[in-house]
User: Fold these one by one.
Assistant:
Number 1:
Amino acid sequence: MSHREPTTPLEVSGGDRRGSALLVTMLTAVLLSGLAGALVVVLSTEEAVEANHRRGVVALYAADGLLTDVVAELAAVPDWQAVLNGLRRSTFSTGPLLVSLADGSVINLRQETLDLQRVLERADEARVSPQWRLYAWGWFADLVHETDRGRLVYVAAWIRDDLVDPDADSGQDATGRVVVRATAFGPFRTRRAVEAAVGRESGAVSVIAWGLVR
């Protein structure tokens, strides 16, 4: 008959209990710290998204505001030829062509004009493309006379002849239609642009089509 040695109950000392409790406390603290850190990241991301959305809304408002102002000016110009050949500019064209925004980024309107023209020429390879002309530019706060709120958004507008103009001359308007693009530039790469086809018929100027440029 086999003989089994009696087992001795495992005894846990008070020090062991305290050590286990300390380990559990440390693990819990690490877990809660991780959860808190994740929550901070989520909240920070949501705040960044919300701030970016607000900047986008403000920029869109500014671009549309400048477009409206330019259309009103065009209505007062009897002959758009001087506008299309670059001889006539808006009364709102006193700002610099190279400007630094609040975040330190730089907007170069000469380069922006070249980029617009390059895109247009790629899209219209079959014919002579009309020329984008920089027509209006400056701080949006100056346009709406709210300089006390600071200069955060810079705006610019370009005008060109429409693509269906039969004369193929970017400085001549044969159809009574031009295209206006207004762009607003804000800090942190915020940019919104709107474009409108503007027509004149029987002396009345109206917006034929309007759209957000993606």
Note: Helices lie at 14-75, 81-84, 109-123, 140-143.
Number 2:
Amino acid sequence: MRKKEICILLVTGLLAFACQPKRIAKSFRGVDNRLSVLLNFDHLSSPLLLSGKEGLFFFETKEGRTWITDEPEEEVWTDSSYVASWSRKDRVVSMTVASQGDSYYLSLYADNGQDILKWGLGLNASDDEYFTGLFERAVDGNQTESWKEGIQTAMNLRGEAVDMLIKPTLSLYTPFYLSSNNYGMFVEGTWPGHYDFCKTNEDMVLIEFEGPSFSAVFYTADNPATIVQQHSLAVGPTLVPPKWAFEPWRWRDNHEHKQTYYDGTEVKAPYNSQLVEDILMMEAFGIPCGVYWVDRPWAKGVYGYADFEWDPQRFPEAKAMLNWLGERDVKFMLWIAPWVAGDMQQVAHEKGYSVPMKGPAGGIDPDSAALIDFTNPEACKWWQENGPEKMLKQGVAGFKLDRSEELVPETRDVLFADGRSAREVRNDYPVLYAKTVHESAKKIHGDDFALLTRAGYTGSSKYTSFWGGDIGSPQEGLRAAIIALLRSSVIGYPVWGSDIGGYWQGDLDREVFARWLAFGCFNPIMEVGPTEDLAPWSMDSEPGYDEELIAIWRVYARLHSDLADYSHQYAVEANETGMPIVRPLFLHFPEQSDAWSDWQTFLYGEDILVSAIWQKGVELHRMYLPAGERWVDAWNPGDVFEGGQWIEVESPMYKIPLFIREGAQTELGNIQQLYEESLQISQKKPDLFVLEKEAF
């Protein structure tokens, strides 16, 4: 691997320095006489100044925080590395900066550091520097802050602080952020940390991480796309689901087995009534469905999830039901969690396969469930054989992996089987969970399976795809979903979807639902609820049978299905090159300032330009068309626009602004005609008595 020369020059005061382009310079700077290290890595728009609030960096023990403020006592440098050391009481503290390939490494450590609890440092930030990454939620804190009315924070994290500790339920994290200064920084390991992007100090990024040592990688390139690719490949490669996973999905939250369908027709079908209703109605409307998943409760027991045994009252003839779906080319997936209940709970405790559960949380009482220790190989094997593999052998095609963050303890006194504390494992637990399920799915189905996971951390993308947790249903919830999609793409989670309509749906609005259907079409995973066991033909607000929503669903489900090969192609590209499927404009057009500011507009693959609308009442939508290309209006292919301008697009409730790069081979067909056809079809209410009779 190519090594880059690093030239070291020691200066004091504010002396100028000159050296080779690849250099590190150490100096005392400013009136505070604070020790700093200048990192002039390749491709940076301006050099990075490594320096904290009170010194170069700090480490912390139970006795307090110690800042490094003086000249190093020993320095060692080579063509590709620099090591500085300081004596502090009974330990030697060191800093190493080294280059390897296209990356630079920064390490802080001590030769007697078992009692060190935390490390911290700072990096300078220019006035207009842009930061994004770290997690899918818009802002830190309670998840509802991300869809709070009036929220302004979008993709840019400047002015925000973030705790790097996975929180429910928007739970995709990774300690990687991208800077418009042509670098990305990734912190290795799984210990919790904290970022402060110019919130405390307006010209400084402050970074703190727990653990006995600190190690970070700086990726640099002359464009942000390459930096994102470097990181994705380093922590991946990302999983490529089968093509059927890029077909539209349908789900409900409770799946009651009722005596009548939504319209009062008596149920005579032998399977779960709501599942049958969905399949028959979607077939009647011509709404494609490639995946149907069932959430909890689906099994026996107080939580509807005991012993991986079907609840025969809710899901009669479950195995035959799977065959019935298979005959219709519909894959079936199940909700699972990393805890067990029923008889399996007792076995897990007796055999030492569980760890103490933080709780009660998420409606789960630790007295009636056992959290599996996925660092214990025997526990993994037992759980795999008696859980996921048992269901996979029945024909289940994959799983929705829920609940891997809020029940895991956060303390240092709880130890897992591999010797690590719960504090260190907390962020890693979702990775171990996904890896364990991935092993089972691959064992039973080869590569023909799909997993959809709520929580993730470094390495998760090798094993699973993701959805955006329990997002709220107001218009700001859709806003949060747009940000989550784009952030997830930047931090290495390319295959992602959201609960269309939101999960918490007490105030679901039909216009927001329509906009979400359109946005969800251009997510790699399009999964349609809504949660309250509803459908556009059985809404709990007027009109209950919503012809317009049915038509809109049909349009975007058919578009999404038509794009399945396209989506799969770009998932393969994400696996091989690290380039995400969904691309914020700045990944392709970093030199255009408007590409950084228009966060609602993004590329789906290389050819399709989408501008998501989240606010109610929008009839004219303003969006940026990137310069250097001509853009064809997908709704009116005769209209071609020069890039490099902001335009206003007529956007009635059914229409999402959509453009194709001129010269691209991608075609979307006559979308306006598809909508008009869909309206005509939705006006003819299907007769479930006839549909059921024909199906059974």
Note: The radius of gyration is 27 Å.
Number 3:
Amino acid sequence: MLLIHCPYCEDDRPELEFRHAGEAHVSRPSQSVEPGRAVAEALYLRTNTRGVVFERWRHVHGCGRFFNAARHSVSDAFLAFYKAGEKRPDIAAEDAGPAVGPSKPEPRP
């Protein structure tokens, strides 16, 4: 079980108390944009990169507040937690640790 740190409660709690709320720092199109490709991409497409990702989480069985977390998508290790509205931390690739596994699936023999 993962332990997640809530920056508002200032405590590490089990992952069962939290809900993932999607990618953090997503730029949304302005209201003046006609519905179409730009709006569809903003609503439905996410980066899903390998390595450090920035996510929104909600402490549903605690304070109920949203916060952001930096997590390594391969190792599942959390690297930083910060309050909603705060600037994204600068996390260098060497701080994230090594990625586990090959970058492409190995061909089957």
Note: Strands lie at 3-6, 11-14, 19-23, 52-58, 66-72, 78-83.
